Amino acid sequence: NPNVRAAQLTELLVSIMGDGITAEARNFIHLIVANRRLTAVPEIHELYEALRREREGVVEAEISSAFPLEDSQLAALVTDLERRFKRKVQPRVSVDRELIGGVRIAVGDEVIDGSVRGKIAAMSTALLKV
């Protein structure tokens, strides 16, 4: 609401955060509100999380599977990825029925495509080169 003053909005957001809010967090909220950048908060959060993961030596793995993975399958996959990347892996799992079968994993700019759809695409490309 443009009629709400920045100070009122700051106090509202700080009160939502509760008693455990630090002075730095309070100042950050004030800065975001004063500069009318509330819409940037989701992007700021993503960037903060990426920096935190980097500092902690954690990589995020986007794992797409044609079917829901069982806990044991996911645990084995994460263990293999941690061995490969020599870092702790934080998985984000989704189901993509268009993969037909298998999994597709993206870690940073590296993609491991073990899906049936990926294999069909690779075979199609190879056949077109012949």
Describe the 3D structure.
Helix 1 runs antiparallel to helix 2. The chain is α+β, with helices and mostly antiparallel strands and 130 residues long. The protein folds into two domains: 45 residues, no CATH class; 73 residues, Glutaredoxin, CATH 3.40.30. The protein has a four-stranded mixed beta sheet.
Terminal residue distance: 63 Å
Helix and strand sequence: HHHEHEEEH
Kindly state the mean pLDDT as a whole number?
Answer: 92
Computed over alpha carbons, the radius of gyration is 22 Å
Helix content: 40-55%
Strand content: 15-25%
Task: Using the 3D structure, state the CATH architecture of the largest domain.
Answer: 3-Layer(aba) Sandwich
Report the sheet with the most strands, covering strand number, pairing sense and barrel closure.
Answer: 4 strands, mixed
In the predicted model, the low-confidence regions spanning at least 5 consecutive residues are none
Shape: elongated
Structural class label: alpha+beta
Number of strands: 4
CATH class of the largest domain: Alpha Beta
Compute the number of structural domains.
2
Tally of separate helices? 5
What would the CATH topology of the largest domain be? Answer: Glutaredoxin
The side-by-side strand order for the widest beta sheet comes to: 2-1-3-4
